[in-house]
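Morning run. Coffee first, then this:
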Amino acid sequence: MSFPELGLRPELLKGIEAMGFEDPTPIQSQAVPVAVEGRDILGCAQTGSGKTAAFALPLLQRLLERPAPGLRALVLVPTRELAAQVETTFRDCGRFTQVKVAVIIGGVGFHGQKAAVAGGAQIAVATPGRLLDHARQGTIKLNGIEALVLDEADRMMDMGFMPDIRDIIARLPKQRQTLMFSATLGPDIERVASFALRDPVRIEISRPTSVAEGISQVVYPVSVGQKYDLLVALLRATEIRSAVIFCRTKDGADRVVRRLKAEGLNVGVLHANRTQGQRTEAMDRFREGKTQILVATDIAARGIDVQQVSHVVNFDLPRHPEDYVHRVGRTARAYGVGDAISLMTYDEQPFLTAIERFVGVVFPRAMLPNFPYAVKPLLTPPRPKTFRDMNFRRLRRFR
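And here it is:
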């Protein structure tokens, strides 16, 4: 299916052509026609699959076909970074239209956001907390919303936004279109769908636990005392175009940044203790190639949309397997290729085991040649302890 076959207006097709898109991705080819018809959607697609355009194009189409003043469409996202990414997609897809988009996020002043809506914005891209602040103060009215998008719904659930989302939905007109997209479809998502969606069309492009094709994954076992040294050695030994290094905590990210800067590497940092201005600057420099390495916590796992990220490095393995999928999804965007490198200490072995079970893959272990290991790393995965684990290993061996 081609973009013209999706039933989109000429000005949107012109915007798509200007962006360099040739053919719709699977989520776009399935979701756009359904959304254009006005149906609700419960969509599940792996990160980097093009789902932002899958809801941006139908919303723009709706606004163009039935012009009316005021705020008419709302997109809820979990993080500020993702809000900026979504706003950029709307702006690019609608560059040959007069549709205006307002970004409603924390960390910046109320006045500019209120002015953007009052100035004629038809679409608001918002984080739940800041939007509720506006709604409670009466600075943004939600009674004219015709379409709601819940983007990265599973992440919003993980971050505790369920009460806010319920509050926001209660303020919206009951007669509306709702599109909900998630990387996973767990019980929490099904509960939200039960009260937010009406007879939704379910669209699942890939297994919720799958990692995008084109990502090469490898684990480097290392002792705690040599973890920083191995990270530096790997960065120097690898041909890295641009890399995102994930840490489990904000303090841990800052320590990695200090170490890498001391080694003379060009590094930026992104986590919740940074101001909005600092976070925006870090992302802009990374996108423009002025910074080669970005060190981040999981707040950025779904908010970084840079097409040319060649490597994702897990300095700390995540505690939740789902976060691993979202982290490594920062590379191989739009069905490209990339490398995911994980450093693992002995204490992190349970995290790795959980991740391998979740994605259904036993990752190869590796040593860095010529690195002065204090303790020789174990390159053989631990033997399974249960019959179920044994079956898992056998299935992987013969698959």
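The longest strand covers residues 215-221. Good start to the day.
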